[in-house]
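Project standup — Tuesday

K.O.: blocked on the structure for the chain from last sprint. Re-posting the sequence here as requested.
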Amino acid sequence: MLVVVVTMALTFRRRAPLGVMLFVVAGGAVLTALRYPPSVPDVVAFLVAVYSVAAHRGLAQSALGGLVAVVYFVAMLVLLPVPIEPMVFLTDCALVIGVWMLGRNLRLRRAYFAELEHRAARLERARGTDARAARIEERSRIARELHDVVAHHVSVMTVQAGAARRIIDRDAGSARDAMSTIEEVGRTALSEMRRIVGVLRTDRDAERAGGELAPQPGLGDLGELLDHVRETGLSVQLWIEGEARTPSPGWTWRRSG
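H.V.: unblocked you, prediction finished:
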């Protein structure tokens, strides 16, 4: 009956391995004191308890459990009613120590793999942080470039507009040249802004736009745009006067009255 109770105690070996081992040792000591010879179930229960302590507890409890197990096992062999040969004695002691070392090595191996997983997770988080920092830095650089481009072109346009205002009454030709320069600079500024802002578009913007990045429609796409409007049921007519030419990408249309 005591052997059954000792064996059933192994059910709690993961939750309280040191307590279970001490209970198994106490049960074995009682059986030895009552002059019962060791049986296979109680020896196996003892070895499993030693392994559990070494595999599921830290070094302090594991070493304490191993020391108690070796002392108990040696005392049990000495107190046996039949003599034991020295070689058998050493082999049995080596078996107990080997079981303890096996459990200890398994715990160290689990801790090593857990540390590797933790380190890999840290590296992955650090890589993600570095990538976000790189994206933020790149966006800041592009924003500075956009600011420089806009500031430069707006400054040129302001100077040209001021010059045109001063000379428009006495030199209309020079004023027209200045306004032409303003128009050209404005188109160039719009083109540069569209190019730089296109770089700043995120993947989410691409998904909202249909999954692909596409330029804004220009005058060359006017026929297709009117076809889409006609599909809605509206009546739209288009007249083209003058010689057709390729407009600047920065050109924008204003809807006239």
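K.O.: great, moving the ticket to review. Residues 164 and 176 are 7 Å apart (CA to CA). The first helix runs from residue 2 to 8.
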